[in-house]
């Protein structure tokens, strides 16, 4: 069993090997299902010139947003900017390169990258700035644009449970981008709430098989709520 055990006990070990200029694919949607501790470790390491692929960039003081303060991110591929004022300001000031990508296209870029598919055609974005410079092809009389898939040196993932072999279970909406992102990293590191022994997870409940996972760490999560709305 020891040879298949993917559990590490420190964040330094979890993110060992990350270097300046790497592409990091991050799971999460807003602040839901984000790998909080792994992001904090990238902050601590002060790794620079990163390309980050994620639905969005957290908020100013939490999630991926904390990497903007010391300008650790060179480029971000995302579908949404709105909740992070610093991200928005750096975009407008030309400090950070941003590739805005339709949300479904971004998910498929990750999934295709993990499946070894270099590109795919989609109608989404045709006739908009998203399509500029991209190949267009017609299928059944409808135009589609060619989108390239995405892979990265690291994928950082949040899951609910994992066994020591790296098999993953996600919980409710925290699944979001995590399963696709997990397949697209050369080194996939997963932060989880609970680690169980092999055999405790039923095959039917596993969302991402351990073949995609390199390292697992048990995290401590703040699980901050991005925006609280209550009725009067």
TrEMBL record:
Key words of the record: Transferase
InterPro entries hit by this protein: 3-oxoacid_CoA-transf_A, CoA_trans_fam_I, CoA_transf_BS, NagB/RpiA_transferase-like
Keyword Iron-sulfur part of the UniProt annotation: no
Keyword Signal: no
Gene3D superfamilies linked to this entry: Glutaconate Coenzyme A-transferase (3.40.1080.10)
PANTHER family in alphabetical order: ACETATE COA-TRANSFERASE SUBUNIT ALPHA, KETOACID-COENZYME A TRANSFERASE
NCBIfam families in the cross-refs: pcaI_scoA_fam (TIGR02429)
Family of the protein in this entry: Belongs to the 3-oxoacid CoA-transferase subunit A family.
Entry protein name: 3-oxoacid CoA-transferase subunit A
Organism: Pseudoalteromonas aurantia 208
């Amino acid at each position: 069993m020891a040879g298949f055990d993917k559990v590490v006990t420190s964040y330094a070990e979890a993110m060992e090997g990350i270097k300046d200029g790497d592409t990091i694919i991050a799971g999460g949607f807003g602040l839901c299902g984000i790998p909080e501790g792994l992001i904090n470790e990238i902050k601590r390491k002060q790794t620079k010139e990163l390309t980050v692929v994620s639905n969005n960039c957290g908020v100013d003081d939490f999630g991926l947003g904390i990497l903007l303060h010391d300008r650790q991110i060179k480029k971000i591929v995302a579908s949404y900017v709105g909740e992070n004022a610093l991200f928005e300001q750096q975009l407008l000031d030309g400090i950070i390169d941003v590739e805005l990508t339709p949300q479904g296209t971004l998910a498929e870029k990750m999934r295709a990258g993990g499946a070894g598919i270099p590109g795919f055609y989609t109608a989404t974005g045709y006739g908009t700035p998203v399509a500029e410079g991209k190949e267009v092809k017609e299928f059944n009389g409808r135009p589609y644009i060619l989108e390239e898939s995405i892979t990265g040196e690291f994928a950082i993932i949040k899951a609910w449970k994992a066994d020591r072999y790296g098999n993953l279970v996600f919980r409710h909406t925290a699944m979001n981008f995590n399963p696709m992102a997990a397949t697209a990293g050369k080194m996939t590191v997963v932060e989880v709430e609970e680690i169980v022994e092999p055999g405790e997870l039923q095959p039917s409940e596993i969302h991402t098989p351990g073949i995609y996972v390199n390292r697992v760490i048990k995290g401590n999560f703040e699980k901050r709520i991005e925006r609280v709305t209550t009725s009067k």
